[in-house]
Amino acid sequence: MTYNKYEEVIGFLELKILEDRASDEELEFYENYLWFGKLDKMSGTYKKLLNELKREWEGK
Fold it and tell me: Is residue 1 part of a domain?
């Protein structure tokens, strides 16, 4: 099994969805990932998720 370096972002997004904290843009981003199997790494939603994940990891 290979490690997908984007699994952490998807896992974080799935947690937000389960906790009902995801925005409409994040839900659309996740649906696109499910349908097409790709992440738009240049999108603002992806960059926002990375920043949120980093802040949460740092405990801020």
Answer: no
